[in-house]
Amino acid sequence: MDTQYPKTIDEAVSALSDGATPLAGGTDLMVEVNFGHRRPDHVVALRRVDELAEWDGSTIGAGVTWRRIELEGPKALAEAARTVGSPQIRNAGTIGGNVATASPAGDGLPFLAAVDASIEVRSATGSRSIQWDEFFLGVKKTALEADELVTGVDLPEDLPERQAFGKVGVRNAMVIATVCCVVTRELDGLTRVALGSVAPTPMRARQSEEMISAVARPSESDLAEFARLVAAEVSPITDHRSTAEYRRHAAGVLARRLLGRCLR
Amino acid sequence: MPLLTESKHFIRPDGPDKVTGSGRYVADISLTGMLTAKFLYAGVSHARITRLDISAARQVPGVFAVLTQEDVPERRFGSVADRTLFAKDVVRFEGEVIAAVAAVDAEAAQQGLDAVVFEYEPLPAVTDLEAAIADGAQLVHEGWADYEAADVERDGNIASFTSMIRGDVEAGMAEADHVVSSRYVSDASQPAPIEPRGVLAQWEGDRVTIWSSTQVPFQARDGVCETLDLPTNRVRVIVPHMGGGFGGKCGFHYEAHVAALARAARRPVRLVFSRQEEFIAPDRRREGMIIEITTGLRNDGTLTARRARVLLDNGAYSSDASFFPHMAAMQTLGPYKIDNIHVEASSIYTNRQPSGSVRAPTAPQACWALESHTDELAAAIGMDPVAFRQQNCVDTGETGVAGQVYDEIGLQDCIREAVSAIDYSQELDENEAIGVAVGWWPSFPGPSGAFVKIDSDGKGVITTGAQECGTGSVMTLPILAAVELGMEPEDFELVYQDTSAAPYDEGATGSQTILNNGRATVEAAQQIAVQLKSLAAEKLEASPDDIVLADGKAHVAGSPELAVSIADLAGVAAEGEMLLGKGSGTPPEYPSAVGVDCIGDRGLSGWVGPQFSCHAVKIRLDRETGVVRVLDVSAAHDSGVIINPIGASGQVEGGVLMGIGQALTERTVYSEDGAQENPAFLDYKLQTIADAPPIRVHFVEIFTPGVGPHGSKPIAEAPNVATAAAISNAITKLVGRPVAQLPMTAERVWGLMQGRGGG
Ligand SMILES: Cc1cc2nc3c(=O)[nH]c(=O)nc-3n(C[C@H](O)[C@H](O)[C@H](O)COP(=O)(O)OP(=O)(O)OC[C@H]3O[C@@H](n4cnc5c(N)ncnc54)[C@H](O)[C@@H]3O)c2cc1C
């Protein structure tokens, strides 16, 4: 295995066009290598590409770590960052790596879905900006071409002030989400609900959003109806971690609680 | 007997090595020319081997040795001698070793493994305990009847059976006002030590030195001798620092495989497990169980009879698990007063990873079942569960389930202390509850030896066969020597974990180090005390009987000014008769248990120095998701006199945290054909420090004669008995019925609230 250490995005993407595999914090990639699922011959390490660690207003560089997001990110994304792994993982792991891995349980992804973020990508031949729902295509499947690098995620200029992230998992730290969720709410009631771990990709619960956005002051029974709708909209699977039924139920409970936090 | 003094607050000497990283573990050691070992595992739960061809693997560049069962003597081993080093003819679980390769590096070793031709014909996997003991069941071991096993009751897929009968159960049930029946099912779980094991072997001529992360170096050595036909003095097992064991590193595992590879390759060979191997291959996991208990009781709370049936998942081989049915039977009866009992317990072969001693084998699961059932009994007559236990638990002078009459014991004090420390009668939020459970655990007397010497400057060395697995018990031996000699614990260094340097010891197993090796160390130190007193008597012109050893000096009783330093005496001794002591002593005898009719007893009905405990746990339940958070724990223990309070408290805290994991999250999930679905920390969740609640530790210190030194009893396993049970009882208070499945995952608790599952 050989490794390249580019200093600029241009050098990095030119390595990609030679078939290299990008390595950021390595907290996903090295796990795959350890399990023998991947065996890259040629690795391009991104840590020395300063441009990737830039955070320019509403564009967060792909190389920004969870630790930084925990301290400086918008509220719900910072809350998500705080639940990623352990301090060691947060110091190494990046948002770009989370996006490129595209795990259904990626804790950073519901926020991107909730605010309709775009993923900025670049190759040796050009760059493009891909809306999140066209980027995440399936379990660990994205619209990214092999020679493309994620350079950052682009958030809208104005983010709703009221936003909350939550996660249901089997213990307090270092845990894969059974369900994770972001809810945002504007002053006029416009509500967005995005969930992870309950579908092949991060998803929006659009019918639930529509229902609850129309209610200015949701009553207990509105909230219950909202929870029921969210549970109905998600499409989780059963595996050794959890049953679909429980994930569905937990998704509704979690979304309702996060909405409650936004309304407070 | 000298009393323990300030030396109690001694801080273990191996701490700095471990926290600064200067300590060396097996994986840190490398020798010139060393090769890397890798194993080929069956990867199938039950199959007949139709072809195993290693000729191509031996040709792979960089590969120095490839071995299968053909290359080693045909020796069966285990508490039922049911397995060989490598699979022979049939594989019985996915982690069984088929072949081993030694090569220049991991890549070459992998290429060697890839070149092994292994073909098989699948056999039906036995995974259901009830089906396994039904008529005509597929046998896991066709040849079971030919295996050697001392004193083990067996039959087909029943690898080991125990029954305990006392009094008249029918009559007892007939006398009852209520008869309560419960059924509890526990999943298997894992010891999960933080250090995946390593073994390094190097031959010099016909002698082999093996560095191994084993809890039991002498058993490891004996396993090598038995399977490779070697005398004990040519096999030396050394354990560097070890990163935890929790029972997972008890027993003989891979030392012989690696020694055989090193001999064949004519090079040192090192094996270091991956995390996944640590989950799948060793014959040490906590057994899954089905526990059925029926108890009769009267309206006044008197227990009239108990009948129980326990099925344990033995897995594919017996490792050390033959005594488990007996342990499970005792745990299902508990530290209660019941005169009429009938328990049957069977450990059943399946095509899963073998079960073996993991910290307090069988106890957390069986105690969880018994204590959940006990709260059901209290509820049946509308009695408070704490009062119910106070009425029914054994006390000093009373007779236990197996007919043993107890000397002074502190179980009732434990209940009182645990309940008061958690403030049992506090006002609770509607989503909070406090659960209480009692536990018990035996002490295991056994042979053990130690040498002590004091050199010319008055500094000492203890050479002990005992093994430090992280609990700090070996680190506690200097306290014992220091007390005998009027010295400080810091005056002693330890030579340990080397089978050629030290006398035999059973290792870090059964919480036995202070009990047995403590006795040996005390005896060795006492011999030196005699020598010192006679030297001092000569110098001070007094009688040896009047010499007192204290504060690093020998003085005449009543005249502290008439003194000579131990260092000076040591200087004199170094010129002639040196200060050398050796100890082993006689292990305490098992007390008889009267009136119990027991098959498969294995001498464990009467317990030496039974340890008692009571754990009280406050939880909060999220009623919508079933998530349980443990808010507060109090744990009171009768482990006799506590010799090392810092170490003992650490054992209780760790045991409680481990118990919370077993209660809520730790679970090995099996596929239908016996394969593990979560052999990694990604999906096997231990508790972390972020989950740890406050843990209030209280010791009920009763001087207990005839067990360990200074009136002590063991402590390492006992704290891992009652926590899951206490959590279960707290959950039941909130949801109305026991979850009856272990672990009590959020999803299971939620399911119960939806009207599914439960006992
Ligand atoms: C112990 C542990 C705990 C964890 N806990 C959590 C958790 O709680 N929540 C959670 O969401 N995740 C968790 N993770 C997963 C992981 O930490 C995150 O997904 C992290 O964001 C990955 O970032 P990275 O920089 O380490 O990615 P890497 O491992 O370096 O890369 C991941 C993948 O993305 C590719 N890649 C990386 N950067 C780019 C780029 N700029 N352009 C294109 N492709 C790129 C790599 O080739 C690789 O395929 C955990 C991981 C571990 C080991």
Topology:
The complex is a heterodimer of chains A (264) and B (759).
Chain A: E1 2-4, H1 9-17, E2 21-23, H2 29-34, E3 42-45, E4 55-56, E5 59-61, H3 66-72, H4 75-82, H5 87-92, H6 95-101, H7 109-114, E6 118-123, E7 126-131, H8 132-135, E8 136-138, E9 141-142, E10 149-154, E11 162-168, E12 179-185, E13 191-196, E14 203-204, H9 206-213, H10 220-233, H11 244-263
Parallel strand pairs in A: 1-3, 2-3
Antiparallel strand pairs in A: 4-5, 5-10, 6-7, 6-10, 8-9, 11-12, 12-13, 13-14
Chain B: H1 15-20, E1 35-41, E2 47-53, H2 55-59, E3 63-67, E4 90-91, E5 97-103, H3 106-114, E6 117-122, H4 129-132, E7 153-155, E8 158-166, H5 169-175, E9 178-186, E10 198-204, E11 207-212, H6 217-228, E12 235-238, H7 255-265, E13 269-272, H8 275-280, E14 289-297, E15 303-315, H9 324-333, E16 341-349, H10 363-380, H11 385-392, H12 411-421, E17 432-443, E18 450-454, E19 460-464, H13 473-485, E20 492-496, H14 513-540, E21 547-550, E22 553-556, E23 559-565, H15 566-574, E24 579-583, E25 597-599, E26 608-621, E27 628-638, H16 645-664, E28 695-699, H17 723-735, E29 741-742, H18 746-753
Parallel strand pairs in B: 1-13, 9-29, 11-12, 15-16, 19-20, 27-28
Antiparallel strand pairs in B: 1-5, 2-4, 2-6, 3-5, 7-8, 8-16, 8-25, 9-14, 10-11, 10-13, 14-15, 17-26, 18-19, 18-24, 21-22, 22-23, 26-27
The complex binds flavin-adenine dinucleotide (FAD).
Fold and architecture overview:
The complex is a heterodimer of chains A (264) and B (759). Chain A contains eleven helices and 14 strands. Chain A is an alpha+beta fold and 264 residues long. Chain A has a domain at 162-263: Enolase-like, domain 1, CATH 3.30.390.50. Chain B folds into three domains: 26-123 and 197-272, Aldehyde oxidase/xanthine dehydrogenase, a/b hammerhead (Aldehyde Oxidoreductase, domain 3), CATH 3.90.1170.50; 289-444 and 592-753, Aldehyde Oxidoreductase, domain 4 (2-Layer Sandwich), CATH 3.30.365.10; 446-583, Aldehyde Oxidoreductase, domain 4 (2-Layer Sandwich). Helix content of chain B is 26%, strand content 25%. In chain B, the strands form six sheets. In chain B, strands 7, 8, 9, 14, 15, 16, 25 and 29 form an eight-stranded mixed beta sheet that branches. In chain B, α9 runs parallel beside α10 (363-380), α10 packs parallel to α17 and α16 crosses α17 (723-735). Chain B starts with 14 loop residues before the first helix and ends in a 6-residue tail after the last helix. The model of chain B has no long low-confidence stretch (mean pLDDT 95). The A-B interface holds A 31, 34-35, 168, 170-176, 240-243, 246, 249-250, 253 and B 274, 276, 624-625, 627, 664-665, 669, 677-678, 680, 682-683, 685, 687-688, 690-691, 745-747, 750-751. The complex binds flavin-adenine dinucleotide. The site of flavin-adenine dinucleotide has 30 residues of chain A, from β2, α2, α5, α6 and β10.
